[in-house]
């Protein structure tokens, strides 16, 4: 009795010219690592909700985002920091407030994940 392995070839059938051409166009490891980190940042449902709130509101403080997503401010602050670290959100201080917004990259990735067009900043 043989074990069927449908996910691999039974013989080496490498089309070297095609494979080399594709390999030459592949992104380099640093770019792949950045993309993976961005995808991982939005892989959490809370962070995805926080990003969606920013997409709808444009620029919001932690208090507003916290109320919109129905989560504690310290949790939302933690998730906003992770989005910022991944390059998907920006922050700026306005007096005693810290305002957050999505970067263009964050907006595009969110649109891709949610399958809708994220609202333009207010």
Folded structure, characterized:
- There is one protein chain.
- The chain is α+β, with helices and mostly antiparallel strands and 122 residues long.
- The chain is 56% helix and 12% strand.
- The chain contains 6 helices and 3 strands, in the order αααβααββα.
- It has helices at residues 16-25, 29-41, 45-57, 62-69, 73-85, 104-114; strands spanning 59-61, 89-94, 97-102.
- Strands 1-3-2 form a 3-stranded antiparallel β-sheet.
- Helix 4 (62-69) packs across helix 5.
Features:
alpha+beta; 122 residues; elongated
Q: What's the total helix number?
A: 6
Mean pLDDT over all positions:
88
Secondary-structure element string: HHHEHHEEH
Terminal CA distance reads: 65 Å
Radius of gyration: 20 Å
**Oligomer designation:** single chain
Shape type: elongated
Largest sheet: 3 strands, antiparallel
Number of strands: 3
Helix content: 55-70%
Q: Indicate the structural class.
A: alpha+beta
Strand order of the largest sheet: 1-3-2
Report the β-strand fraction as a percent range. Answer: 5-15%
Query: Spans of 5+ residues with little confidence (pLDDT < 50)?
Result: none
């Amino acid at each position: 009795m043989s074990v069927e392995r449908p996910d691999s070839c039974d013989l080496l059938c490498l089309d070297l010219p095609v494979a080399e051409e594709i390999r030459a166009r592949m992104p380099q490891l640093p770019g792949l690592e950045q993309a993976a980190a961005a995808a991982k940042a939005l892989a959490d449902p809370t962070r995805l909700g926080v990003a969606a709130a920013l997409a709808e509101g444009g620029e919001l403080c932690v208090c507003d985002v916290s109320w919109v997503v129905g989560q504690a401010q310290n949790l939302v602050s933690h998730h906003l920091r992770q989005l910022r670290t991944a390059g998907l959100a920006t922050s700026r201080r306005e007096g005693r407030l810290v305002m957050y917004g999505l970067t263009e990259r964050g907006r595009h990735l969110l649109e891709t994940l949610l399958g809708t067009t994220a609202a333009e900043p207010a």
